[in-house]
Amino acid sequence: MKLRRSIAWARGFSEEITLKAIASAADAVCIDLEDGVPPKRKAESRVKTVHMLQTFDFRGKERIVRVNGFGSDDYEKDMNEVIAVAPPDAIRLPKCERVSDLLLVDQRLRLIEEQHDLPKDSIEIIAMIESPLGVHFAFDIASSCPRVTALSVGMEDLTLEMGVRRRYKDNELDLIYARQRVVLEAKAAGKTAIDSGMLAGDDAAKFKQNFESAQMGFCGRSVYTDEEARDANRAFAPTDEEVRFSRGAAAVYESGAIDEETGSVMFEGKRICLAAYEKARRIVETAELIARKEQDRH
Protein backbone atom coordinates (compact mmCIF):
# COMPACT_ATOMS: atom_id res chain seq x y z
CA MET A 1 0.00 0.00 0.00
CA LYS A 2 1.43 3.40 -0.99
CA LEU A 3 -0.06 6.78 -0.10
CA ARG A 4 -0.59 9.03 -3.10
CA ARG A 5 -3.38 11.24 -1.75
CA SER A 6 -1.49 14.29 -2.96
CA ILE A 7 1.31 14.49 -5.51
CA ALA A 8 2.91 17.95 -5.59
CA TRP A 9 4.14 19.24 -8.93
CA ALA A 10 7.66 20.69 -9.12
CA ARG A 11 9.61 22.04 -12.11
CA GLY A 12 12.82 20.41 -13.21
CA PHE A 13 14.54 23.77 -13.55
CA SER A 14 13.46 25.15 -10.14
CA GLU A 15 15.11 23.96 -6.95
CA GLU A 16 13.00 26.49 -5.04
CA ILE A 17 9.69 24.99 -6.20
CA THR A 18 10.94 21.48 -5.45
CA LEU A 19 11.97 22.47 -1.92
CA LYS A 20 8.51 23.98 -1.35
CA ALA A 21 6.91 20.74 -2.56
CA ILE A 22 9.12 18.74 -0.20
CA ALA A 23 8.20 21.02 2.71
CA SER A 24 4.48 20.71 1.92
CA ALA A 25 2.04 18.17 3.31
CA ALA A 26 2.02 16.25 0.01
CA ASP A 27 2.60 12.51 0.08
CA ALA A 28 4.83 12.64 -3.00
CA VAL A 29 6.76 15.09 -5.17
CA CYS A 30 6.75 14.90 -8.96
CA ILE A 31 9.54 16.77 -10.72
CA ASP A 32 8.31 17.66 -14.18
CA LEU A 33 10.49 17.42 -17.29
CA GLU A 34 7.58 17.49 -19.76
CA ASP A 35 4.84 20.07 -20.30
CA GLY A 36 5.78 22.21 -17.31
CA VAL A 37 9.22 22.91 -18.79
CA PRO A 38 9.74 25.25 -21.78
CA PRO A 39 11.72 23.62 -24.63
CA LYS A 40 14.68 25.95 -24.08
CA ARG A 41 14.97 24.82 -20.45
CA LYS A 42 14.79 21.04 -21.01
CA ALA A 43 18.57 20.50 -20.83
CA GLU A 44 18.90 22.72 -17.75
CA SER A 45 16.04 20.84 -16.09
CA ARG A 46 17.70 17.47 -16.61
CA VAL A 47 20.93 18.64 -14.97
CA LYS A 48 19.11 20.22 -12.02
CA THR A 49 16.80 17.23 -11.56
CA VAL A 50 19.78 14.89 -11.21
CA HIS A 51 21.27 17.24 -8.62
CA MET A 52 18.01 17.36 -6.67
CA LEU A 53 17.50 13.60 -6.74
CA GLN A 54 21.05 12.99 -5.58
CA THR A 55 21.35 15.66 -2.89
CA PHE A 56 17.92 16.76 -1.60
CA ASP A 57 16.36 15.20 1.49
CA PHE A 58 12.82 14.41 0.35
CA ARG A 59 11.77 13.72 3.95
CA GLY A 60 10.32 10.32 3.18
CA LYS A 61 8.21 11.53 0.27
CA GLU A 62 8.02 9.42 -2.89
CA ARG A 63 10.30 10.88 -5.59
CA ILE A 64 8.59 10.87 -8.98
CA VAL A 65 9.88 12.25 -12.28
CA ARG A 66 7.58 12.98 -15.20
CA VAL A 67 9.59 12.25 -18.33
CA ASN A 68 8.68 13.37 -21.83
CA GLY A 69 6.53 11.23 -24.10
CA PHE A 70 7.83 7.83 -25.19
CA GLY A 71 9.63 7.92 -28.53
CA SER A 72 10.51 11.62 -28.41
CA ASP A 73 14.08 12.92 -28.42
CA ASP A 74 13.53 14.43 -24.98
CA TYR A 75 12.30 11.08 -23.65
CA GLU A 76 15.58 9.46 -24.69
CA LYS A 77 17.55 12.26 -23.05
CA ASP A 78 15.43 12.06 -19.90
CA MET A 79 16.06 8.35 -19.57
CA ASN A 80 19.79 8.53 -20.36
CA GLU A 81 20.66 11.71 -18.50
CA VAL A 82 18.30 11.57 -15.52
CA ILE A 83 16.63 8.23 -14.80
CA ALA A 84 19.75 6.15 -15.58
CA VAL A 85 21.95 8.47 -13.52
CA ALA A 86 19.77 9.13 -10.46
CA PRO A 87 16.90 6.58 -10.41
CA PRO A 88 13.74 7.96 -8.73
CA ASP A 89 11.08 5.91 -6.96
CA ALA A 90 8.75 6.21 -9.96
CA ILE A 91 8.39 7.83 -13.35
CA ARG A 92 5.22 9.44 -14.58
CA LEU A 93 4.88 8.45 -18.22
CA PRO A 94 2.70 10.82 -20.29
CA LYS A 95 0.32 10.06 -23.14
CA CYS A 96 0.22 6.28 -22.69
CA GLU A 97 -1.71 4.51 -25.44
CA ARG A 98 0.01 1.24 -26.39
CA VAL A 99 1.13 -1.75 -24.34
CA SER A 100 4.11 -2.22 -26.66
CA ASP A 101 5.46 1.17 -25.55
CA LEU A 102 5.02 0.31 -21.87
CA LEU A 103 6.90 -2.96 -22.32
CA LEU A 104 9.85 -1.15 -23.91
CA VAL A 105 9.93 1.34 -21.04
CA ASP A 106 9.75 -1.60 -18.63
CA GLN A 107 12.78 -3.21 -20.27
CA ARG A 108 14.70 0.07 -20.12
CA LEU A 109 13.97 0.50 -16.43
CA ARG A 110 14.96 -3.11 -15.73
CA LEU A 111 18.41 -2.43 -17.18
CA ILE A 112 18.73 0.72 -15.07
CA GLU A 113 17.78 -1.26 -11.95
CA GLU A 114 20.44 -3.85 -12.75
CA GLN A 115 23.07 -1.16 -13.27
CA HIS A 116 22.29 0.35 -9.86
CA ASP A 117 21.77 -2.97 -8.04
CA LEU A 118 18.17 -2.08 -7.36
CA PRO A 119 15.42 -4.67 -6.77
CA LYS A 120 13.36 -5.62 -9.80
CA ASP A 121 10.36 -3.33 -10.41
CA SER A 122 11.55 -0.88 -7.74
CA ILE A 123 11.18 2.01 -10.21
CA GLU A 124 7.43 2.19 -10.64
CA ILE A 125 5.46 3.62 -13.56
CA ILE A 126 2.47 5.92 -13.16
CA ALA A 127 0.90 5.69 -16.61
CA MET A 128 -0.85 8.90 -17.68
CA ILE A 129 -4.09 8.46 -19.62
CA GLU A 130 -4.55 11.58 -21.74
CA SER A 131 -6.38 10.56 -24.93
CA PRO A 132 -9.44 8.59 -26.08
CA LEU A 133 -7.11 5.81 -27.24
CA GLY A 134 -5.49 5.75 -23.82
CA VAL A 135 -8.89 5.44 -22.15
CA HIS A 136 -9.82 2.64 -24.58
CA PHE A 137 -6.70 0.63 -23.68
CA ALA A 138 -6.58 1.63 -20.00
CA PHE A 139 -6.92 -1.92 -18.65
CA ASP A 140 -4.25 -3.27 -21.00
CA ILE A 141 -1.90 -0.44 -20.01
CA ALA A 142 -2.54 -0.96 -16.28
CA SER A 143 -1.90 -4.71 -16.53
CA SER A 144 1.00 -4.51 -19.00
CA CYS A 145 3.68 -5.12 -16.35
CA PRO A 146 4.01 -5.20 -12.53
CA ARG A 147 5.86 -1.89 -12.33
CA VAL A 148 2.78 -0.02 -13.61
CA THR A 149 1.17 0.62 -10.23
CA ALA A 150 -1.27 3.42 -11.10
CA LEU A 151 -3.10 5.16 -13.90
CA SER A 152 -3.23 8.95 -13.84
CA VAL A 153 -5.73 11.14 -15.68
CA GLY A 154 -4.33 14.15 -17.56
CA MET A 155 -7.32 16.44 -18.04
CA GLU A 156 -5.63 19.18 -20.06
CA ASP A 157 -4.58 16.82 -22.85
CA LEU A 158 -7.74 14.72 -22.60
CA THR A 159 -10.04 17.72 -23.02
CA LEU A 160 -7.84 18.87 -25.90
CA GLU A 161 -8.16 15.50 -27.63
CA MET A 162 -11.92 15.46 -27.01
CA GLY A 163 -12.35 18.99 -28.34
CA VAL A 164 -14.13 20.26 -25.22
CA ARG A 165 -13.49 23.07 -22.75
CA ARG A 166 -11.86 22.35 -19.43
CA ARG A 167 -14.03 24.30 -17.05
CA TYR A 168 -12.65 26.37 -14.18
CA LYS A 169 -15.52 25.60 -11.82
CA ASP A 170 -17.22 22.34 -10.87
CA ASN A 171 -14.89 20.48 -13.22
CA GLU A 172 -15.40 17.24 -11.29
CA LEU A 173 -18.15 16.59 -13.86
CA ASP A 174 -15.88 17.11 -16.87
CA LEU A 175 -15.51 13.87 -18.87
CA ILE A 176 -16.97 11.96 -15.94
CA TYR A 177 -17.44 8.78 -17.98
CA ALA A 178 -13.85 8.75 -19.20
CA ARG A 179 -12.49 9.40 -15.71
CA GLN A 180 -14.72 6.77 -14.10
CA ARG A 181 -13.72 4.25 -16.75
CA VAL A 182 -10.03 4.88 -15.99
CA VAL A 183 -10.76 4.14 -12.32
CA LEU A 184 -12.64 0.94 -13.14
CA GLU A 185 -9.98 -0.31 -15.56
CA ALA A 186 -7.23 0.44 -13.03
CA LYS A 187 -9.08 -1.38 -10.24
CA ALA A 188 -9.81 -4.32 -12.56
CA ALA A 189 -6.06 -4.63 -13.07
CA GLY A 190 -5.42 -4.40 -9.33
CA LYS A 191 -3.91 -0.91 -9.58
CA THR A 192 -4.89 2.54 -8.29
CA ALA A 193 -6.05 5.67 -10.12
CA ILE A 194 -4.90 9.26 -9.61
CA ASP A 195 -7.04 12.22 -10.61
CA SER A 196 -5.82 15.32 -12.43
CA GLY A 197 -5.03 18.62 -10.75
CA MET A 198 -7.89 21.03 -10.01
CA LEU A 199 -8.64 24.39 -11.57
CA ALA A 200 -11.32 25.69 -9.19
CA GLY A 201 -10.30 28.53 -6.90
CA ASP A 202 -12.24 28.65 -3.63
CA ASP A 203 -11.79 26.17 -0.78
CA ALA A 204 -15.37 24.89 -0.82
CA ALA A 205 -15.17 24.03 -4.53
CA LYS A 206 -11.80 22.33 -4.06
CA PHE A 207 -13.01 20.13 -1.21
CA LYS A 208 -16.15 19.25 -3.16
CA GLN A 209 -14.02 18.16 -6.12
CA ASN A 210 -11.70 16.13 -3.90
CA PHE A 211 -14.64 14.44 -2.22
CA GLU A 212 -16.26 13.62 -5.57
CA SER A 213 -12.96 12.20 -6.85
CA ALA A 214 -12.59 10.03 -3.76
CA GLN A 215 -16.18 8.80 -4.18
CA MET A 216 -15.36 7.86 -7.78
CA GLY A 217 -12.55 5.63 -6.54
CA PHE A 218 -9.47 7.79 -7.12
CA CYS A 219 -6.79 7.39 -4.43
CA GLY A 220 -5.54 10.98 -4.75
CA ARG A 221 -4.70 13.78 -7.16
CA SER A 222 -2.04 16.19 -8.38
CA VAL A 223 -1.67 19.37 -6.31
CA TYR A 224 0.18 22.65 -6.68
CA THR A 225 0.26 24.15 -3.18
CA ASP A 226 0.59 23.09 0.45
CA GLU A 227 -3.02 24.15 1.00
CA GLU A 228 -4.21 21.91 -1.84
CA ALA A 229 -2.11 19.04 -0.48
CA ARG A 230 -3.66 19.32 2.99
CA ASP A 231 -7.15 19.49 1.51
CA ALA A 232 -6.54 16.44 -0.68
CA ASN A 233 -4.99 14.50 2.21
CA ARG A 234 -8.16 15.10 4.23
CA ALA A 235 -10.56 14.22 1.41
CA PHE A 236 -8.75 11.06 0.30
CA ALA A 237 -8.46 9.68 3.83
CA PRO A 238 -11.04 8.04 6.10
CA THR A 239 -12.63 10.30 8.71
CA ASP A 240 -11.98 9.80 12.42
CA GLU A 241 -15.50 8.43 12.79
CA GLU A 242 -14.97 5.95 9.94
CA VAL A 243 -11.74 4.75 11.55
CA ARG A 244 -13.37 4.41 14.98
CA PHE A 245 -16.31 2.44 13.58
CA SER A 246 -14.06 0.25 11.41
CA ARG A 247 -11.80 -0.69 14.33
CA GLY A 248 -14.80 -1.76 16.37
CA ALA A 249 -16.50 -3.61 13.53
CA ALA A 250 -13.31 -5.48 12.63
CA ALA A 251 -12.70 -6.43 16.26
CA VAL A 252 -16.24 -7.81 16.68
CA TYR A 253 -16.03 -9.77 13.43
CA GLU A 254 -12.63 -11.20 14.40
CA SER A 255 -13.96 -12.26 17.80
CA GLY A 256 -15.65 -15.17 16.06
CA ALA A 257 -19.21 -14.37 17.15
CA ILE A 258 -20.51 -14.80 13.60
CA ASP A 259 -24.14 -15.75 13.08
CA GLU A 260 -24.14 -19.15 11.35
CA GLU A 261 -27.28 -18.36 9.37
CA THR A 262 -26.31 -14.93 8.04
CA GLY A 263 -22.51 -15.20 8.15
CA SER A 264 -22.35 -11.77 9.75
CA VAL A 265 -22.22 -9.96 13.09
CA MET A 266 -24.05 -6.91 14.40
CA PHE A 267 -22.09 -3.84 15.47
CA GLU A 268 -23.74 -0.58 16.51
CA GLY A 269 -26.92 -1.55 14.73
CA LYS A 270 -25.21 -2.44 11.44
CA ARG A 271 -24.71 -5.87 9.94
CA ILE A 272 -21.05 -6.66 9.28
CA CYS A 273 -20.62 -9.32 6.59
CA LEU A 274 -17.32 -10.52 5.15
CA ALA A 275 -17.17 -7.72 2.57
CA ALA A 276 -17.95 -5.09 5.23
CA TYR A 277 -15.25 -6.60 7.46
CA GLU A 278 -12.67 -6.48 4.68
CA LYS A 279 -13.60 -2.86 3.95
CA ALA A 280 -13.22 -2.05 7.65
CA ARG A 281 -9.77 -3.68 7.74
CA ARG A 282 -8.72 -1.64 4.68
CA ILE A 283 -9.85 1.58 6.36
CA VAL A 284 -7.90 0.71 9.51
CA GLU A 285 -4.78 -0.17 7.49
CA THR A 286 -5.03 3.12 5.58
CA ALA A 287 -5.39 5.07 8.82
CA GLU A 288 -2.33 3.34 10.27
CA LEU A 289 -0.32 4.06 7.14
CA ILE A 290 -1.32 7.74 7.30
CA ALA A 291 -0.34 7.90 10.97
CA ARG A 292 3.10 6.47 10.20
CA LYS A 293 3.50 8.92 7.33
CA GLU A 294 2.64 11.86 9.55
CA GLN A 295 5.07 10.62 12.20
CA ASP A 296 7.89 10.39 9.63
CA ARG A 297 7.08 13.86 8.30
CA HIS A 298 7.49 15.41 11.73
Identify the overall geometry: globular
Distance between the termini: 21 Å
Going across the major beta sheet, what is the strand order? 1-2-3-4-5-6-7-8
Radius of gyration: 20 Å
Number of separate strands: 10
- Oligomeric organization of the protein chains: single chain
The CATH architecture of the largest domain: Alpha-Beta Barrel
Helicity level: 40-55%
Largest sheet: 8 strands, parallel, barrel
Strand content: 15-25%
What is the CATH C-level name of the largest domain? Alpha Beta
Number of helices: 12
CATH topology (level 3) name of the largest domain = TIM Barrel
Poorly predicted runs of 5 or more residues: none
Word description of this protein:
With 298 residues, the chain is of the alpha/beta class. It has two domains: 6-235, TIM Barrel; 240-297, no CATH class. The chain contains twelve helices and ten strands. Helix 2 packs parallel to helix 3, helix 9 (203-216) crosses helix 10 (226-235) and helix 11 (240-254) crosses helix 12. The longest helix has 24 residues, at 274-297. The mean pLDDT is 94.
Using brief descriptors, characterize the structure shown.
two-stranded antiparallel sheet; 298 residues; 49% helix; TIM Barrel
Short summary of the structure?
The chain is α/β, with parallel strands linked by helices and 298 residues long. The chain contains 12 helices and 10 strands. An 8-stranded parallel barrel has the order 1-2-3-4-5-6-7-8, surrounded by 5 helices. A two-stranded antiparallel ribbon has the order 9-10.
